[in-house]
Amino acid sequence: MPDRVVITGYGCLTASGGDAEATWKAVLAGESGIRQAETWDSSGWPYRLAGEIKNYSPRELVADRKLLKFITRQDVIGLNAVTQAVAHSGIIEHRDGLADPTSFNDRTGVFVGSPATKYRSQHDYLPSLADAGGAPREFGARAMEDVHPMWLLRALPNNVLAYAGIQYGFKGANANVTAHGISGSQAIAEACRYLRDGAIDRAIVVGYDSASELEALPYYASVGLLSSRGLRPFDRRRDGTLLGEGAGALFLETRDDAERRGAKIYGEVLGSSVVSEAEGVLSVREDGEGVRRAIRLALEDSQKSPDEIGMISAHANGTRLSDSSEARAFVDIFGASSIPVTGFKWSLGHTIAASGVIESILTLLCLADGRIPGIPTLEELSPDCEGVSASAAEQKPRSSVGIVVSRAFAGLNSCIVLSTNG
Amino acid sequence: MTMARVAITGIGMVTPLGNDVASTWNALLGGESGVREIAGFDASGFPTWIAAEVRGLRAEEAVEDRKSLKYATPFSLFALAAAEEAVRDAGVRPTPKTAERWGLVCGSGMMTQEFDFLQRFQREFAADGEIDLARLGAEGERFISSPEFARHRTVAGQALLHKRYDIRGYSANLHTACASGGQALGMAMRVVRSGQADYVLAGGYDTMINPIGLAGFCLLGAISTDNDRPASASRPFDRTRNGFVLGEGAGFMVLEDWQRAQDRGAKIYAELAGEGNSLSSYRITDSPPSGDGPIQAIHGALADAGETIDAIDYVNAHGTSTPMNDLSETNAIKAVFGDRAGNLAVSSTKSQMGHLIAAAGAVEGVICALAIEHSMAPTTTNLRTPDPECDLDYVTEGCRPMQIGVALSNSFGFGGSNSCLIFRSPQRAETRGR
Predict the structure, then answer these.
(1) With contact defined as beta carbons under 8 Å apart, do B321 and B383 qualify?
(2) Which positions 364-423 of B are in contact with A (Cβ < 8 Å)?
(3) Domains of chain B, residue spans
């Protein structure tokens, strides 16, 4: 019997709140953190709504101020969530009382869902390009003068992984998943794999993203994925998604280890899945085949049947095809109107690589509090989402087990199964 | 419960030494260097203008599906070509019946925005070097074409490979800098072992040989500036080593359950037998001189494979030719292997093909499979001035004919991720399996 994996700490930072509790309260109260973007002058932009972190202050979010020279905004956000989850778990106090912290650190993993390199960092070269006026030789010389010597290190897609390790001395197995919207969920799944394989005893898992940076918006708008009005999952008038910044982190341990140290156990990761629809970068199957298969495999992995599931945290990104196709998958597996469905992107924006972890934390809180927040922007259920039990009204979970669905470009779909263990 | 063993049944490579497995292997045997003056763009304004580039790859020949070429960046073309060779070599490919039982696990590079695009973007929206926000807001969405949008996604290569082979099962796209390819093979091995997939197409692909990638490494001072002697610029473990040389390319494997491979009569190159995965948690660019971090990864790989230090015959070193990596790696090998360290054949194929960054671990994994198959340890070229602190047997005399029962491949990345993989010969795997 493989080890069971439990959650002993969590933390997050979103547009709607500076920690998990504040985010949870905001979502329950129907509050959205989505505003007109303020980190740059977005006046005149046709699409300017974004879920930006409020009162962003790197010096308050990251304790090691020297570090700020070597990391970017997305890394700051990610490391803040890591710090919150590690503190919440009490694991450092436990380690520091051990006779052999070295082997403890060697058996502690770091698993990350990363947005990978952002366009902003490449834009550090724009002044050199302008000065060189298209002359390649001149560009090389200018870049050596103009660009920060540590540029490459600031741009590394695995900075949060590296600095989470350095901050705490964790040295175990690690992975940096760069799979767009399923990165966070897959970081959880891979941490569980290495825990179940016995390669590590515990792991910090983090998903982070600054998805709403200004350079990203024209890209998403160019393929018609952005709404200019608001994110309305499953609504008849939904017309696109909105991007957001955020990070979420979980501390995972084997149940044996957590019980032995007397840790407070907030929940359990029962199973997971990742599948591809294999139809290209942007294609999404109308029939929800990938979502359906991801849910089936995750239930199988968890040894759960559909009627044991108490709620669904849907991807619910507000785009026409993603919402209707996942709705079909839910109805196919769970039957019409029989299981409470919610989503959180209407409040936080789509935090892409962070979303799977943040939404897992919020699902855990739904199960723990017995409350499933409604979706205030859902005014009229879309006919193509018929049968999905989602509305503006709050619901109650049917059991202590919930699933979290995440989707990504490349036709990727992931499902995480969580429980609070009653 | 016995754990499933994982067979390597297909291999493919695109490297600076050749655009397929045979030509790369022959160039390795011949001690050739793939390092030259950079031909892909005018690099003369940079402190370094040499690199190991892939030459003469005709993507149109490698990729039958012309439409997908529109969505391919240079490094995803490397991936498509190397993956095609691996799949053909394996003699098995996804069918509508098996597609959901195939997985795809890759380490891919970080340079997703093309330089040409960046130049056009600058002319359009940042004429004086600063972004004109009003203009970007008004015109940005029309400036970016749909294929460009797709090409610039981090999962662009992953999407192409999924579609090309109709792989519908498990999928992972990873990036831990220079450890990416190794970590991808390790994770793929675990996916097969766990029964999550029957077959996994696994590999790594990268290029950072473009003006931005080159600038980044030049700014850091991490690469050799020996522009006047490109062929010997990469000299791992040599006392005069002064940085690595950028390479590019892709390495892919088809991994499958051992029993399944045998049942279908597949040629088995080797068993991918163990993975050690650790984090140095020391500095972003360096491993500690003591070898801490890599030491745990080597131990982890040995334990995972059920082998002891006495079993290892050959080590394909990370061997980047930077002062600190080669020292740290040497010390890690000494710490793990003790008295046996001097008896190991250790070589760095980066001496010939440069550092393929996110592809390195995957390409070097393929090289380990070939070393086992051909009973031949590749050489470390350019090691002429011994470093008293790097005093292992680095196979400097040329390729060395030797039986290889078990090989170890090391990959250590910026950021401190370490990946060590154990490859076991089919004969040894069979003996152990009985």
Answers:
(1) no
(2) 413-417
(3) 6-112+153-433, 115-150
